[in-house]
Amino acid sequence: MIISPHFSKALLPKLSGVKGFTLIELLIAMAIFAVLAVMAYSGLRTIIATSAGVEKQIVQLEELQRAMTMIEADLRQIVPRAVNTDLGQRKQAFEVGQDTSVLIEFTRGGYPNPAGVLRSSLQRIRYSLDDEGSLLRSSWQHVDYTTSVEPQSLVLLTGVESVEWRFLGNNSRWGTSWKTEESRNSEIPKAIEITLKHARFSEIRRLIPVSGY
To answer: What global pTM score does this model have?
Structure first.
């Protein structure tokens, strides 16, 4: 297609009248866009950080709820069943340790058996607290376990600063220690109070009646 010289000369005045952006205007527009982009990114980063913090709190709260539910289920089902060891000795049905390596140890009933394995419905349980602030639940499949058998350990809760106990005895008095005579090694508390101090949730206290008493 050939364009006539007369047509080009007629169109040239119209094109020369069209105005574009100057360099300064482009720089100003780019600066405004950059400021808006930074503000948008800052807001998005704050939202993401807040969302991550909320999710972490939800996970820790769910962990706390699961731990307290399991603790309560264990303590409610304590039964007066002493333990025979491989050394010919008997351990009390309910014992309180001297340090965090053994907080309490007891025999509980209601051990689930969905597979129908030929075993007792009783189970030996131990709670302990390690140096990293993890509350551990150790369990033996058989009540009369030997010292060579390692228990199955489960981390119930992290971030635990301390665990304190109180026990309601047969004399209807509360105490922080538990010791029975050799002839009464099957005695268990009427009720147990646990006070757990957590790094995030501060102090959690539960009073649990022992139904197996």
So the answer is: 0.71
Sign of the CA dihedral 193, 199, 201, 202?
A: positive
pLDDT, one tens digit per residue, over 109-118 is 987 777 777 7
CA distances from 14 to 1, 55, 115 (A): 22, 63, 91
How high is the mean pLDDT of the chain? 83
Show the domain range for 209: 23-111+120-213
Burial of 190 (0-12, 13-18, 19+ CB in 10 A): middle
Say if residue 146's pLDDT is above 70: yes
- Asked if the model's pLDDT at residue 7 lies above 50, the reply is no
Whether residue 153 lies inside any domain: the answer is yes
Q: Is residue 9 part of a domain?
A: no
